[in-house]
Structure formats: structure tokens, C-alpha cells
Amino acid sequence: DVQLLESGGGLVQPGGSLRLSCEVSGFTFSSYVMRWVRQAPGKGLEWVSGISGTGGTKKYADSVKGRFTISRDNSKNTLYLQMKSLRAEDTAVYYCVKDGQAAPIYIPNFMDVWGKGTTVAVSS
Amino acid sequence: EIVLTQSPGTLSLSPGERATLSCRASQTVSSSYLAWYQQKPGQAPRLFIYDASRRATGIPDRFSGSGSGTDFTLTISRLEPEDFAVYYCQQYGSSPITFGQGTRLDIK
User: Fold this and answer.
1) What is the pLDDT of residue B27?
2) Which residues of B touch A108 (CB under 8 A)?
3) B53, B92, B98: which to substitute to probe chain A, counting the most A Cβ within 10 Å?
4) pLDDT tens-digit profile of A27-47?
5) Contact flag B56-A112 (C-beta cutoff 8 Å)
């Protein structure tokens, strides 16, 4: 079974930092683009960031560019999201998501497996 | 970026009825690269449809997707109690990927 397990969420003050992790199993991690998608309380889905299978290409939503850094460790089957300069509007459930199709490069794609999510709350 | 607009915002129907959900794009979605997801309260989204009309693994055939260009539709032929949820469309024809704002399907 394909599984994605996020961790690292919590309560942080505005301006603070947090590092999310996503441990995966059940598929060849390095063959897939991986993404982070978030959902603010009572709101819709927002793509945050994506990374190619090798880690060589990284993309960010304008709302987080310059503050968030995505990375991956294919030897540990783990995806990361380093978040800095956090704002109240970053408060959300953050989902780790696997693309539906393996790809050698970074391409837009649908997503077939989602983690359960980890909650980030930014508040003083 | 492509903006997706879903309608209606809320749809109230009874079990056994037919549901039609719309997703309209601000520009053509390349190759009909459009997906639909279902989300229930407290749960992660679940892929239902991709490539506009292909059902994901395990999705019952009462769910069907159609459309091309800028207009896409998710149809549920006969609603079951477990179908009442929020549905999101997502385009992956161009970067960045974007989502619609969702349609809430409520029990009438």
C-alpha cells in the first residue's frame, strides 16, 4: 500500500519557523514529483510547492516564494517543507501529495495519493 | 495561471437523484488535463477523475467526467448517501496547477 505520513506541524508565532516532513512507502519515491498542498480552515485547496524526482527542480506558489523551501531525501523516502517567516495566513492543514504518474522531469500533474495532513497554526 | 470556477457553490439533492457539477476554466485546459477530487469533513481529498473522464481506481461507475477546452462536468448518476461531500476540480494542463473553489453537495 502507498502511504504518506506527515509530521512536524504545530503552533508557532508569527515570524517563526517550522519544518514539515513526509515519510512515504509503497512506491519508488525517486520516480515521482511530490507536492505540498494546503487548506486553510474552512477554505479550498491551494498548491504550495512541488519538487522533481531528483530534487533538481523546485517550484513555489507566489504566496510562499522566498519563505518556504521544499526538499527531499530519496535515500530516506522523505519529503520536507522548511517554512520561515510564517504569517497568520499560512495557518492551514498541509498535505503531502504524490503525483499520479511517474515522470523524469517536473511537470504539472494530477495527484493520486494524499497524506492525512499536518496542521500548522500561526498565532501569537 | 488558469483560474477554475466551480458552480454551483452548493447543491442540495436527495439520494437517488442525479448531480451535475460544473468547472469552468479561464483559458483552455491543455489536453483535457482536468481532475476531480472528493473531500469529506476531516479527511484528505481523494482522487475520483483524471484526464477529464477517467475514473480512478475503485471509483464506482455512477461517477463520470466529461468536457474539454474550458468547460468540464462531473456527473453522479444516482446519488448514494456516501456521495455527499465537497468536490474540487484541478487543472494540470499548465503550471502552476490550480484548483477550483469547490462545490458542496448536501443532502436535501
Assistant:
1) 97
2) 33, 91-97
3) B92
4) 999 999 999 999 999 999 999
5) yes
